[in-house]
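Budget justification aside, the reviewers requested a transparent look at the raw inputs and outputs of the sequence design task funded under Objective 1. We therefore reproduce one unedited record. The lines immediately below are the structure tokens for a 279-residue chain.
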């Protein structure tokens, strides 16, 4: 049972991004990242990258401020979903079952110890490409867009936490994610912790929030095919007037080649290429 529990989470499926500049942020994700809008409901646009099998991966929501809303996680099976829900309920962080939404079935909503909001589910809808988006290859969900950054898929999210130790323990002990990297302080405890769900080296990261605030995030990352895509992206963002915060450069953690930029709503977005480093 313990070994099986370590594979209850499949991947991060979607992240809600809050923006006070909705139209400008939508331009960033659609025109610059080459994401496709698949739905518009209320104040939210649902977008996807070209090589993702589910309906969407970004829920862009108009808001008075920037930041992260709810992050969705897919379980590996109905049984895995029930195991994680039972473990979450034992902590008191659960908020109950919610009705199906765009592209997914019933899901269970909960918070982590730092008040970030999550949903976990299993039932999903595979993306069905229309004539305009139909790929030449049968084993590809959508056609390669061929413009902008050509973001391939959502890769990971790095949250800020007022207590990295407690929040990291939640993912280790309750969610059964596996820790792959960490920044350990000489004084004890951790400044950052990295967790993976499957073979990819990390899916969820927690970094120390020196302000002591709760529920914030550091960045959201998209995967690219190659390092060269990131170098091209840097030139592309420079021409489009997008603020480049850092990079292109290489992280020591996971040895990821990366670029940090700020989208118009004020959220930090990373483009990452980890090469062949799998666990």
């Amino acid at each position: 049972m313990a070994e099986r529990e370590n594979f209850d989470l499949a991947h991060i499926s979607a992240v809600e991004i809050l923006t006070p500049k909705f139209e400008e942020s939508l331009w960033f994700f659609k025109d610059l990242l080459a994401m496709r809008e698949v739905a518009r409901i209320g104040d939210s646009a649902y977008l996807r990258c070209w090589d993702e099998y589910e309906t969407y991966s970004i829920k862009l929501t108009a808001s008075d401020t920037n930041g992260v809303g709810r992050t969705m996680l897919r379980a590996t099976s109905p049984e895995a979903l029930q195991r994680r829900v039972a473990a979450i309920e034992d902590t008191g962080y659960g908020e109950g079952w919610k009705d199906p939404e765009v592209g997914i079935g019933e899901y269970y909503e909960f918070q982590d110890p730092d008040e970030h909001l999550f949903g976990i589910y299993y039932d999903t809808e595979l993306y069905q490409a229309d004539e305009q988006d139909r790929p030449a290859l049968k084993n590809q969900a959508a056609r390669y867009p061929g413009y902008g950054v050509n973001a391939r898929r959502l890769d990971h999210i790095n949250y800020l936490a007022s207590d990295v130790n407690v929040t990291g323990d939640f993912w280790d002990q309750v969610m059964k994610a596996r820790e792959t990297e960490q920044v350990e302080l000489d004084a004890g405890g951790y400044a950052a912790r990295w967790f993976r769900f499957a073979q990819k080296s990390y899916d969820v990261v927690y970094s120390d929030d020196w302000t002591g605030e709760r529920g914030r995030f550091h960045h959201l990352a998209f995967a690219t095919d190659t390092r060269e895509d990131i170098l091209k992206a840097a030139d592309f963002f420079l021409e489009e007037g997008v603020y480049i915060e850092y990079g292109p450069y290489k992280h020591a953690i996971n040895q990821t080649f990366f670029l940090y930029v700020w989208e118009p709503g004020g959220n930090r977005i990373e483009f990452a290429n980890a090469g062949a480093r799998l666990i």
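The chain is about 20% helix and 40% strand. Residues 2-273 form a domain with the 2,3-Dihydroxybiphenyl 1,2-Dioxygenase; domain 1 fold (CATH 3.10.180.10). Computational costs for records of this kind are itemized in the attached budget.
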